[in-house]
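In practice, a research group might receive sequence data for several interacting partners and want a quick structural hypothesis before committing to experiments. The following worked case mirrors that situation: the sequences arrive first, and a predicted assembly follows.
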Amino acid sequence: MISKIIIFGIVGLMGIGIYCLMITRNLPKVIVALQVLIKGAMIAIIYAGDISGNMDLAQSMALTIIVADTIVAVIGLALAIQAREKTGSSKIQSISNLKK
Amino acid sequence: MSLETLIPSLILFPWLGSILVWAMHDRNEKRIHMTASVVSIICALVSIQLTFQIGNQKIVYYTFGAALGELSFSADAMGVILVLIANVIGSLAVIFSMDYMQGERNLSRYYAMILLFIGAMSGLVLTANIFIMFFFWEVTALCSYQLISFYNDDPNAVRGGLKALLMTQFGGVGLLFAALMIFNQVHSFDLNVFAEAAVNVDIEQGVLALIGFSLIIAAAAKSSQFPFFTWLPDAMEAPTPVSALIHAATMVNAGIYLLSRFFPAFAAVPAWKETMIWVGLIGILLTSILAITTYDLKRVLAYSTVSQLGYMFVAIGSGSVLAGQFHLLSHAIFKALLFLAAGAVIHACGTRDMRSMGGFFKRTPFVSTSFLIGALALTGIPILNGFWSKELILESVHKESSTLVLILMLISVGLTAIYTLRCFKMVFMGKNDYAHLHPSPPAMKTVLGILSIGALTSWIAISWFSESLKQTLPYHAIESLNVTEMAHHIFSDPITCFALGITTIGFLIAWLLPKKEFPESLLKLSANSFGFDSITSGVVQSIIASAERIRCIQTGILNWNIFGLMVGLLGVLIILFMGR
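A structural hypothesis for the assembly, expressed as tokens:
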């Protein structure tokens, strides 16, 4: 039963993350969607480590993901703030327009 | 020093030197020259020390945590000899550069790349793990690209560098494919595990053939063989010491090394050896003719490099790894000598066009004599090193291959004599009125002197050479030879007389060759490498055109990209599901 809940949790989080990434055009929301997606993936890795009996590897990978994920969030949010200051908008297209 | 210390120091020390030189940023030219020279000389000394360790302990393992697993390095004779060549000729090229590159800009980048290359080359031939070998393989390609494009304000240099990088990538892909196939079969990247499985026929013949032929593609691309031979002549835009080190003595030998290393695993694969012979032979004949019809001194030497590497392909294809490896050693020495002597000539007169050269023998006797020694070794004149190794190859062809192959090889011997004497005649003989020639400084002369002695005497090492190979390579069935036995082998074979006779005829033809220029149409065809350049450009153009066509799917909109990712992921999942 618990394993089913975990799988539903993983699929749910990843599904929400992917759906939001596909429909949203607002950079802070994109970062939130990415965070949700990554958390789903992280639970999947830990669960995979649990069922394959390779918890050490799963833990080290989860830690690596936390580091990478934080960097992505920090840089993404910094970009969002800069873009808002420069263009007055949080839309992704506004960042693309910066190069023009 | 123990083997465990020597191996990593041969890779890491030049790399640290490279970072150090890079960090100097052209601030003090003299200090950059000195640092690079000291680092390369120390590397050469360490590589000499490594030769004393051959046979002591074959494989060394290093563990770098669970993710990378065990990295294995093997100090057998085949690898150690190439390390010796890379480091000793590398240090000579660096010393030569002290004079040759004086006053040039971006020296720190130049030396950093050379030192990075030397370390990567040592890693490439010492590792016993094919995936790590792929890594070093790619690093050498990157250094080669950087150094060919060293004069990056010259469009030809940039074009030549890109061409070399793209064409050698075929080799990279071939090697990666072979590495992954090997892992798929034996669940390890370790060469020894694979060799054992292949020799014990644990791998299916079809799969083995696939791996074998992808390795031939890898070797042909890296060693500039048919049909990939057009990148090497264009790589001559690099500074001459780089041509001597990377494009004559070391990197281009990596392909030969790869095939020699894997020879026992694929020797029984049908048509594998024959393919190697014909790839080598077509390359030899095409490039020998191209060398006769070109007027660029460095291009002549580049074509002759392709043709000599072709000899090694034929030797391995005929089953004589010893002859191939011995020619590799001889060729590395005499071709480095030829390139560096040519470099001294170019340094003196400031042009590469042989039509505006001539009369150098009287003006620069030391450089001319060095070039002559290299040229005689290239044509296979007794008792220089090229003679012994070339005759060993011809002997193995005589014994193991068809008469047609032998006849074509003998024709190529004649062609070699023609282009070598033609080149020597145009550059060093006759008259020319140079008002001022740059003199050759002492560092250049020292390097040329050392290499000339090497070309005259390296063949004496055959006994040590063959014995070390025999001891450390149990699967290769290498015959042990000493100087007397080698002389007996060679002089008792009638092919030696034929070869020497044909060389003499070649010299006569070159001597009598009229001075007037070749017809314009022939020169155009030669500049286009007999149409092979057009094929290469055609492939590149068609890739660019198709890339232009499919760029419309790159919208740059994040939502579409995520959608594309999801479709790709679904595709992978479907493939995985179907494979179950």
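Before designing any experiment, note the following. Chain A touches chain B at residues 18, 21-25, 30, 57, 92-93, 96 (CB under 8 Å). Residues 10 and 40 of chain A are 5 Å apart (CA to CA).
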